[in-house]
Structures are given as structure tokens and as C-alpha cells.
DNA sequence: ATCTTATTGTTAATAAAATAACAATGTTTT
DNA sequence: AAAACATTGTTATTTTATTAACAATAAGAT
């Protein structure tokens, strides 16, 4: 098994989702799970689950289902970085605070270590559990705290410049929530998400369903 | 051209993204755009853009690029519902408020007409521009205001029950931001999004890139 | 201990999505 | 007004993702 081969993005997404659900199940004291159960929880097929687990080389021993604890651990070995990676939120407004409060204490291998803003009201305060730094100190702070991932939640008109800055300061991955489409060098991984797209997609299928089903 | 054929979900997503970007460009007084320009803004290929537009039967006249205003209008005719659809946010916490403030005044065919919560502090107040109703009045309010789409942002432990309720009250599409995986009847369209998955995906590729590039 | 059964792991087949190839078309240049 | 050109619209091809099929395996039943 080529352990050093990059997994397809889709598989990585599902592995993250498997783990999220498995952790919930562990909390409910469930210890084993069948592929078809996990599939049903994610609205996918059991084959897909088994295929994904095959890709990461995980094998269950069979017939009793997967050992949830073990599987969570295996997924971690594949998708987490051993030493952990440090994350910052850039732009501590409505969305930034929501993300911070959600993120807090969730993932042991991804540490939310800082946020940045240009609002004097926010600078040097702890907001939603994370210290807010002056955006002017970003270069220094990113280096000092060894931050490699940024969650971008500044206003649209600040997005482009801010993105160029953080890339210059050594950020290697960006989750962009602004409505602005960014350009980054090929060695920086960029993921973009816009809620409006999700809502419009829902609306489209609702509309189509209403057309055919009344 | 089969106008009544459902488009692939991926195409619907891209159409929404095209429109978002085109509206930004219009605001900057740009009137025409080539397929390759639009593609670059979305990090996809020009062929994909042209293919999507072919699917919705849009034709440019050629060589001067697409008329942005016209294209925005055409996309609207395809993905929007003519009469508009009404949307509610269920759970007006950190994320609910962030979504509300983002949504406000954005889409003319999707109207954010209500939010629901069980916190007496919030009930009957206008929060982030939208009135917050008592969750107990949800059945009535959903019917009165003809709400067909819900954005679910309640705490995880309330998610399942709340989802069952809104489905019973006639909701036809749900955008689920809770970490709980929901089950809905086949005539209800469900879209789920978890930020942690996005961040873990970024982290995975950052890790892999660091391995190969130092 | 053997048989039955349920579930896995994996290869093969199918389906969906993306890309390439290129003729058609309208624009600009000469 | 013809030639050169850039860009589109569309079909064909390739690639990627999903699903189906099924032999292998281990748990439980007899
Ligand atoms: N709210 C949402 O649900 C949502 C959803 C999708 C996308 N977005 C986008 O995310 C971004 C943030 O949305 P929001 O609702 O949190 O907005 P917001 O105005 O509440 O927050 C923006 C924050 O960025 C800070 N800021 C402004 N300029 C800055 C700069 N140059 N450097 C650093 N910080 C700066 C502001 O002080 C503020 O704290 C926007 O681009 C918005 O379009 C929001
Ligand atoms: N904050 C984020 O960025 C983020 C991201 C992804 C997912 N989520 C998920 O979204 C949900 C909301 O997150 P949040 O940070 O806004 O939490 P929050 O606690 O700030 O907000 C939850 C809101 O729901 C209300 N509520 C509680 N029980 C309710 C009930 N039974 N009926 C109606 N309303 C009820 C609360 O009064 C509160 O206003 C959670 O499930 C969280 O896991 C949050």
C-alpha cells in the first residue's frame, strides 16, 4: 500500500466526516459499527465506506464491524499531521467569532492559536476563547506562533490584500469564507466556501421538486 | 433543449458561483467577460464554463465574450424560483447571526423572513435584521409566512428533534450546519456542511505539501 | 466440528465529471 | 471584401468517482 500517495480530496472529506460521526458515537458508548451503518449516517453507500477504508489500509478483522476507537485512530494517523498544525482566524467579526467558538477544543491536532483584526476594540482581547492580535503584528505573530493555516473572514474589500499578505508571511493553507475569489501560488492550498451557493443549491432543488411533486 | 431537466448539482453550484462573481464584476463596471476569465476566477477551466452555459442554453453571440448582465439574468431564470422562496434560520446563536447578517439584502429571490429560537432573551426581538420568533410558534409561522427552506443552526443535541419538526411543518429544503447527520424523507432536499471538514481537508493537503516540498 | 450466514475487502463495471479537440462563427485587420 | 484570428459551442475522449459483484473470512448456529 502506497502510504505516501495523496488521497483524493473527496476521500479526505469523507474521512473527516467519518471521524466526526464516530466520535459522536463513541460519546454514546457505541464501540463497533458496520459499514452500512456508517454509510447511512452519511447518506452514502456501504461500498464507498469500505472502499475509503481500503484506501487508508484499514482492516477490521471482520464480521463484528469496525472497532470505532481503532478506526478513529487510524483516520487520525492518515489525515492529521503528527506534530499538529497551528491555525489563525483573520477577521474577528460575526463569522470569525462563530468559527472560533465552534472550533474551540474540538481538534487536538489543529490548534487555533490566534486571531487578527484591525479594530482597536478587539485587539489584545480574548474573543471567543482566542486572543486577537493587531493585524499589523501579523507577520511577526505568524512566524512566532508557527501558524500555517488561515481562516479568512475579513470583509470582501480587504480580502485580496490580506490574502497576499498572509501568503507572503508563510501561510500554507487558506480556508476562504469571503465572497472574493482569491489567487495564490501553487504551493499554497486554497479551499473556498460560500454559504449562498449552498442555499441557492437547496433552493434550486426545492423549486424543481415542487414543480414535479406539487 | 430540455429546459425541464434537472441540472447536475455540481453545475448548479457553479452557476451560483458564476453569478456571485459576475455581480461583483458588474459593480466594478465590467460588462463583458470571456470564458477563460471567468474560469480563472473560479480556478476551473474555460471549457467547463462553456459547457455549463451550454447546459442552460445560453449563447453569447461570440468573440466579444459574454454579456455579463444578460448572463446573470439567464442564470437567474434557471436557478431561481420565479415567485421567490422564503427562508428561515432556526437557532439564532453565533452562527445563525453571522448567516443572517451575511444573507441580508443579498438575494432578491430568496427572502430571509424569520428566525426561531427558544431563548426568551431573543424571542420577539429583531436580531441581525431578522425577527426572531418563539420556536413554539414555528408550526404556525412557517405556514403563515410560507417558509419552504430552513437553515439549521441549533445546538447539536436539539438538531434531530428540530429537524423532524420542521419537516412535519412543511419545510422542503434544509441547509444543515449542525454536526449531527440528519434523516429526512426523500421529498425534502438536505444539504450538509461542516467547517471542520473543510479545515481538516486544508490541513491534510498542507501536511502533504510540506512533506514533499519542505 | 461443520454448516450457515453476515460482512468485509477487492476487483470489475458503470456512471458522472472534466478535459480535449475542433468546426463554426463572428471580429478585426489588411 | 478577403484573410487572419480569437473565441465560442459541441461532440468525443479521458479521467475520476461511484456502484456492483463476489470470493474470502470469521462469528454464531446446529
Ligand atoms: N457572516 C457569514 O455567515 C458569512 C458567510 C459567508 C461569507 N461571509 C464573508 O465573511 C466575511 C466576514 O463576514 P462577517 O459577517 O464576519 O463580517 P464582519 O464585518 O462582522 O467582520 C469582519 C471583521 O474583519 C475586521 N476587519 C476589517 N478590515 C480588516 C483588515 N483590513 N484586516 C483585518 N481585519 C479587518 C473587522 O474589524 C471585523 O471584525 C465577509 O467577507 C463576508 O462576506 C460571511
Ligand atoms: N459556530 C460555527 O462556526 C459553527 C460551524 C459549524 C457548525 N456549527 C454548529 O451550528 C450550531 C450552532 O452553533 P453556534 O455556535 O451558533 O451555537 P450557539 O449556542 O451560539 O447557538 C445556538 C442557538 O440555538 C438556540 N437554541 C437552543 N436550543 C434550541 C431549541 N431547542 N430550539 C430552538 N433554538 C434553540 C440557542 O438559544 C442559541 O441561540 C451547533 O450545532 C454547532 O455545532 C457551528
Largest sheet data of chain A: 7 strands, mixed
Strand content of chain A: 15-25%
> In terms of structural class, how would the helical and strand content of chain A be classed?
alpha/beta
Oligomer: homodimer
Annotated CATH topology of the largest domain in chain A: Rossmann fold
Low-confidence stretches of chain A: none
**Amino-to-carboxy terminus distance of chain A:** 51 Å
If interface size is counted as residues with C-beta under 8 Å from the partner's C-beta, which chains form the largest one?
Answer: A-B, 67 and 68 residues
Draw up the topology in text:
The structure is a homodimer of 214-residue chains.
Chain A: H1 9-27, E1 32-33, H2 35-42, H3 46-55, E2 66-67, H4 68-79, E3 85-90, H5 94-103, E4 110-117, E5 126-127, E6 130-134, H6 138-144, E7 147-152, H7 156-168, E8 173-176, E9 189-192, H8 195-213
Bound molecules: nicotinamide-adenine-dinucleotide (2 copies).
One nicotinamide-adenine-dinucleotide sits between chains B (91-96, 116-119, 135, 153-156, 158, 162, 177-179, 195) and A (98-99, 101-102).
Chain A binds a DNA duplex (30 and 30 nucleotides) through residues 8, 10-11, 34-36, 44-48, 50-51, 53-54, 59-66.
